[in-house]
Amino acid sequence: MARRYDSRTTIFSPEGRLYQIEYAMEAISHAGTVLGVLAKDGVVLAAEKKVTGKLLDLAGAKEGGYGGSGEKIFLLNSNVIGGVAGLTADANSLINYARTAAQKHLLTYNDDIPVEVLAQRLCDMKQGYTQFGGLRPFGVSLLYAGYDPHYQFQLYHSDPSGNYSGWKATCIGANNGTAQSLLKQEYKDDIEIKDAISLVLRVMSKTMDSTTLGSEKLEFAVLTLDPETKAPKAKIYRPAEIDALLQSEGLKKDEDAEMKPAQ
Amino acid sequence: MSIMENNGGSVIAMVGKECVAIACDLRLGNQALGVSSDFQKIFPVTDRIFLGLPGLGTDVTTLKELFRFRVNMYTIKEEREIEPETFAHLVSSTLYEHRFGPYFIEPVMAGLSKTPSGGFKPFIAATDLIGCLNFAKDFVVAGTASSKLFGVAEGLWEPDLEPEDLFETISQTIMNAVDRDAYSGWGCIVHVITKDQIVTRTLKARMD
C-alpha cells in the first residue's frame, strides 16, 4: 500500500507520513558519524570519514587550504563550521548555498551572519523540497558549530525535512543513538573546551565501526574565540594535528597492527 | 559637472624593487565644498594586495563591500588567497558586468604576486570605470588629480627604488599633484608593501 505514496515527496500517506523524507533520514543514519559538543568557551565537531583507502590522494589535505579533507567538516563562514552526514554531493551543494548566504548577510548588514539565521536559511530551502513536486529532498543532515555576539557559542542540527534545533551535545549519522546516550551520561553543563575535546574523542572512539582511530578516519574541528581579538577562530585540524591530538589523549590506536596479516 | 568629479579624490600606485606602493588623498567633497578629511579610498584585499577606489563616494563604499564578498567566496572555495593577477581580472569582470550602468569608480590595485621560485614580484594595475585593464610596469594613476599625478610621476619615478625611496617618491608625487587639484587633497595615506611587511603612513597636507 505504501508504494502508492512513497515515490512522491509531496504526498502524504493515509497514515499522514511523508515516506521520501523518512527514507532520506534513513540514508543519513547509515552515513559517517558527526558529533558536536557545545562548551562554555567553544564548540567541538568530530566526524568519521567513510571514504578511505591506500590509493586515495590526500595530498591536498596535508598542506594548504584551511584544513580538513573536504568530506565531512567545512568552513561555512569565519564564525561557523559545518559538519555533514548523508549524500556528499547534496552536502556540497548545501555548503555552497550556506557560504553564499553568509556572505550575502555580510554584504547587506556588514555583520557576520548569526548562527541560527544561517541554519534557518538552509532549512527554508530544505523544507521547500518537501512541499514542491518533482524533486527529491536533500539527503543531508548538518551540524552547525558557530559563534555570534547575541547568543555566544551555539550548536545546531538540521535534518532533510527542514527541522532544526539547538543542542548542548548531539550526534548525527551511524550509531547516533549510542553516541547520544553516551553524551547524555557524560555531558556536564559549563564544560570547558579542553574537556569537550576529550569527551568528543572518547565518544567518537566508542561509536566508530573501525577499530583504528587516526587521521585516516577522523575529521576534527574546534571553534573558539581568539584571546587577543575576541573574534571567532575556526580551526579545522590537519591530519598530522589529529594524530598528535589522539596521541596526547591516549586514544591513538596502532594502524599497523591491523594491517599486518594475522599470525 | 561630471559625476566622476562629484566627490573628488585620487589614487596612485608605483612599482619599486621587490616592493610596491599605493597612496590616496583623504578628501571627500560635494563639488567644491569639502565634507570630510578622513575618507580613505584604499582597502586591504589580502595580506599582499591593496585596492584603491577613487570616484563617486557612494560607489567607493559599495564596491569595497562587493569585492569583500567576492574575495571571501574565492578564498573559502579555492582554499587559498587570491593572487593579484586573478584579482585584477575579478575587478575587471565585476565592472564590465555593469557595462551600461557602471559604477563611477576607476580602481587602482597594487600587490606582490608569488613567483614559481617562491619569491615575490611587484604588481600594479588600473582599470577604467567599465573594467578595461591597464597593466603598467612603472606607475598607474586615477581620480580627479590623475593628469597632475601623471606629470609629477613622469618626472620623479625611476626603476628599482628601494622601499624607503619608493615611499619618498610616491609621497612627493601625490602631495604635489593633489595641491594642484581643487577636488583632491586634505591629507594623504601611503601604503608600502614589501615581502615581509606593510608600512602605512599618514601624510599631513595643505588644508585649503
TrEMBL record, chain A:
Compartments where found: Cytoplasm; Nucleus
Quaternary data: The 26S proteasome consists of a 20S proteasome core and two 19S regulatory subunits.
Gene3D superfamilies attached to this UniProt entry: Glutamine Phosphoribosylpyrophosphate, subunit 1, domain 1 (3.60.20.10)
CDD domains for this protein: proteasome_alpha_type_4
Pfam families, sorted: Proteasome, Proteasome_A_N
Proteasome alpha-type subunits domain ranges (all copies): 5-27
Keywords: Cytoplasm, Nucleus, Proteasome
NCBIfam families in alphabetical order: PRK03996.1
The keyword Cytoplasm belongs to this UniProt entry's keyword annotation: yes
Family: Belongs to the peptidase T1A family.
Protein name: Proteasome subunit alpha type
InterPro entries: Ntn_hydrolases_N, Proteasome_alpha, Proteasome_alpha-type, Proteasome_asu_N, Proteasome_sua/b
Main location: cytoplasm
From TrEMBL, chain B:
UniProt-listed PROSITE patterns: PROTEASOME_BETA_1, PROTEASOME_BETA_2
Subcellular location: Cytoplasm; Nucleus
A Pfam family it matches: Proteasome
The keyword Metal-binding appears for this protein: no
Key words of the record: Cytoplasm, Nucleus, Proteasome
Gene3D superfamilies associated with the record: Glutamine Phosphoribosylpyrophosphate, subunit 1, domain 1 (3.60.20.10)
UniProt main location, coarse: cytoplasm
Top-level taxon in the UniProt lineage: Eukaryota
InterPro entries: Ntn_hydrolases_N (IPR029055), Proteasome_beta_3 (IPR033811), Proteasome_bsu_CS (IPR016050), Proteasome_sua/b (IPR001353), Proteasome_suB-type (IPR023333)
The family this protein is said to belong to: Belongs to the peptidase T1B family.
Complex formation: Component of the proteasome complex.
Purpose: Component of the proteasome, a multicatalytic proteinase complex which is characterized by its ability to cleave peptides with Arg, Phe, Tyr, Leu, and Glu adjacent to the leaving group at neutral or slightly basic pH. The proteasome has an ATP-dependent proteolytic activity.
Name the record gives this protein: Proteasome subunit beta
